[in-house]
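In this supplementary section we document a worked example of the pipeline. Step one takes a protein sequence of length 246 as its only input; no multiple sequence alignment statistics are reported here. Step two produces a three-dimensional model, which step three serialises into structure tokens for compact storage. The input and output of this example are shown verbatim.
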Amino acid sequence: MNLGIAESNGDCIMAVGSHCEYPKDYIIKCIDALESHPAHNTGGCIKSIPREEGILAASVNIARQDIFGAGRSPFRQGTGAEPVFVDTVFGGCYKREVFDKIGLFNENMARSADMEFNLRLKEAGMKTLLLPDLYVKYYARSTIREMMKHNFKDGMWIILPFAYSKVKWSKRYMVPMLFVLTLPLSIWPYAVLAIVRSAQIATKEGWWYFFVMPWVFFLHHLSYGVGSIWGGIKLLCLKSHLRQKK
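The serialised model returned by step three reads:
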């Protein structure tokens, strides 16, 4: 991505993700928003679609975008009718001056590089604008195994960036790790919340979700939290190694 940015010569640069289907007017709407708002980065929301059929695939898909499963992420749940300034978006379209001012994407980061970049953008006094009427279809992983493997890596790379970046991350990303670390106590209030939220989902999607969603939510958060713990261990080992080299 950084090589592509270095070779490009346009006024706007867009980071396009894989496993996605973009609407035909996505680029022009992002550019129009950059010109009509005091923004340096624009992007839309993500509409997650399971790659497979069946209740389990649908449940995994719900967990990754539901507010109980993923937290309050404006680009996942939307924000209403009007554009709003946020910390990050999906499929960002940047003004070239952003890269001139804060540099390129952090190549030390196997994941979360886009989020880290957008937080650097914010700390530099620039703004990211979410366009709530613009949706990208994202074909998500649909099995429990794929979900847990993906979440483990995501959880790990919420912690490891502290070794490579000085930006301030939201404390809400640490919640799954705290949940796992305090599991004997946290499991009881968690179970109540998971069951209540699953019941709400079941009233809209079908009664069988009431029996599936609590387990999917639990495995979703468990794998993320364990990944964060492993990321913390790797971070301590990495910092110890760097101190020894000095």
